[in-house]
Amino acid sequence: MTARLLCISNGHGEDTIARRILAELRSRHPEMELAALPLVGEGTAFQKLGINLIAATKVLPSGGFIYMDSRQLARDLKGGLISLTLAQLKALKTWAQDGGTVLAVGDIVPAAFAWWSGLPYAVVGTAKSAYYLKDEQGPLPGLPWYAGWAGSTYLPWERWLMSHDRCRLAVVRDELTRSELQQLGLPHVMAGNPMMDGLEPTAELALPAANAAALTVCLLPGSRAPEAYANWQLILNAVETVLPQYAPQPIQFLGAIAPALDLAELQQPLHAAGWQADGDQETDFHQAHGRLTLTQTAYADCLHLADAAIALAGTATEQFVGLGKPAFTIPGDGPQFNPTFAQLQTQLLGPSVILVDSPGMVGAALAAVLSDRDRLATIQQNGQRRLGPPGAAAAIAAQLSQHLGLDA
Questions:
Q1: pLDDT tier for residue 304 given thresholds of 50, 70 and 90
Q2: Average of per-residue pLDDT across 193-198
Q3: Of 75, 147, 152, 358, which residue is least crowded by CB atoms under 10 Å?
Q4: Are 38 and 6 in contact (CB under 8 A)?
């Protein structure tokens, strides 16, 4: 009988992680029947792999960031959240009638769906980390008194789902979280973060020697419209404070822009800020002592070429930090990158993220960090430790094969 596996995920970043794991599973088990149930968004990451979706998809107003703003929940309810969830639960039960296994990628919601299926399942937790509450030296300062009341960032009901006898494997982001959960008695816990997979540079964006700069800065506005356009304006304001710090030496800025975004929405504020386009394509711009390139195809190259990033993003910021580099960030006003998210991201990523109050403070902060060799060494070690090495998707696929009996 052909093995069947259903992947349930709840967000754009989670879909990307899930896709990497499923691609590795398919390479190990070409005959496996794979299906997906994306709870948030359109599930295009799965469709690109030729994986069938078992239920209709719908994009809700929050984009999956209900937990960041209670107002988003009200908008999602009005947008059809309840009817969508009921349809998803029904589709899950229908799929489960023929047996198989379930892979939940994300937070407690896909994990609860996996449990409700009645089938053996595995959980890949992408949303939580012990680093939100502590680091290797102990509890983080300044947290509210109730932080960590459950003994872990994973709450008792989440740990129950991860320790259930039908949960054959739980995967967490990092070694600190794995150690914490094992001390709490959870079996079958491994650390692995596929977020750092697939970031090999392509040399597509190799900069000409004539443009050799004193500094290269990656600009990461996020991937969701219209929030990313507002973030871009904050980033450009920050760029104006970076240029004077290094004048007359040139600075190269690399805008790593998600393919779904409209470049025209990013080009207009560049013109308004005095940047001049090089050519009709308007992807390369110049200003006194500065050059700026926009690309929607050379994301990994931007991360590898840059010395630092100005970032108002989720996954992209984590990946940049995972390469051992500093990211400078400013609280935005979107459903994702708001002050709450920025503070939580700083806790998660520690000294690798420098959170400043306003765009006008970025230039001085960047110059101070990049001139401190000891601090840069700490940032390099910290980022690599918290995000882990490449190859996690293959390691998770191997463990899934073993614990879900797929190698039998």
A1: very high
A2: 94
A3: 358
A4: no
The yes or no reply on domain 4-197+390-403 and CATH 3.40.50.2000 is: yes
Query: pTM higher than 0.85 for the full model?
Result: yes
Q: What are phi and psi of 41, to 5 degrees?
A: 80, -165
Contacts of 171 (CB under 8 A, 6+ apart): 122, 123, 124, 125, 189, 190, 191, 192, 396, 399
| The token pair that represents 315 in the structure block | 């996954």
Just give the CATH number of 209-387. 3.40.50.2000
Provide the residue ranges of all domains of the chain, joining segments of one domain with +.
4-197+390-403, 209-387
Does the pLDDT value for residue 79 go beyond 60? no
- pLDDT at residue number 324: 97
Which is it for the CA torsion 387, 389, 390, 396, positive or negative?
A: negative
Residue 204 pLDDT > 90: no
CB 256 within 8 A of CB 295: yes
